[in-house]
């Protein structure tokens, strides 16, 4: 690109990174994942985080749940405010998906107040899900989600005109569908996350 005088236009504007950390207000779990992100088992390791988008009429907060097995987004929450429901509602969807998993699931997050909250902790315990947290101020401890946020924003947000909350919500919904079902990954043998999950389940069967 340098030789041809080309310049990417997706890296010119960056949104401020959202931080939900408010100190120790509840339960701070151990870092069980400890950067061991790889797994050959579907639904064994799930990671989640919140990111912020700027809209023409305010802000949008996005909270996806990703399976580290194939990087598939299992569920997500979208809201104009970073409320507790932003994480609890998609958590319910995720727990329903992983309830019949072969191995016990570990849920990994940062130390944001949502993930320290007693309702979050109680819900994980009720469903026999291990809780894992990144160390304070260490984004590399949750690099799979950080990488996804960067990829997503480069492909459908940066360099684009600001749109309304509802318009951006629809763009995100379309992107997640594309990402899960059509966007191929080299580490998944050239398949999309859903294609890889189906392919591997057929091999096991």
Automatic annotation (TrEMBL):
GO biological process: DNA integration
Residues of the signal peptide: none
Sequence ranges assigned to domain Integrase catalytic in this UniProt record: 35-201
Lineage: superkingdom: Bacteria
Pfam family, one: rve_2
SUPFAM superfamilies reported for this sequence: Ribonuclease H-like
A GO MF label: nucleic acid binding
InterPro entries assigned to the protein according to its UniProt record, in alphabetical order: Integrase_cat-core, RNaseH-like_sf, RNaseH_sf, Transpos_IS3, Transposase_IS3/IS150/IS904
Name of this chain's protein: IS3 family transposase
């Amino acid at each position: 690109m340098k030789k041809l005088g080309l310049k990417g236009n997706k890296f010119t504007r960056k949104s401020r990174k959202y931080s939900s950390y408010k100190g120790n207000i509840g339960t701070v779990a151990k870092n069980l994942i400890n950067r061991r992100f790889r797994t050959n088992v579907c639904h064994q390791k799930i990671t989640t985080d919140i990111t912020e988008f700027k809209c023409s009429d305010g802000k949008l907060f996005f909270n996806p749940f990703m399976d580290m097995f194939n990087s598939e987004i299992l569920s997500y929450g979208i809201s104009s405010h970073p409320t507790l429901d932003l994480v609890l509602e998609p958590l319910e969807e995720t727990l329903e998906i992983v309830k019949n998993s072969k191995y016990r699931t570990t849920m990994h997050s940062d130390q944001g107040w949502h993930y320290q909250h007693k309702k979050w902790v109680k819900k994980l315990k009720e469903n026999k899900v291990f809780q894992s947290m990144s160390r304070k101020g260490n984004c590399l401890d949750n690099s799979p989600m950080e990488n996804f946020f960067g990829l997503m924003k480069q492909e459908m947000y940066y360099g684009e005109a600001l749109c309304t909350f509802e318009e951006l919500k629809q763009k995100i919904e379309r992107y997640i569908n594309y990402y899960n079902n059509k966007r191929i990954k080299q580490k998944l043998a050239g398949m999309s996350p859903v294609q890889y999950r189906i392919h591997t389940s057929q091999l096991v069967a």
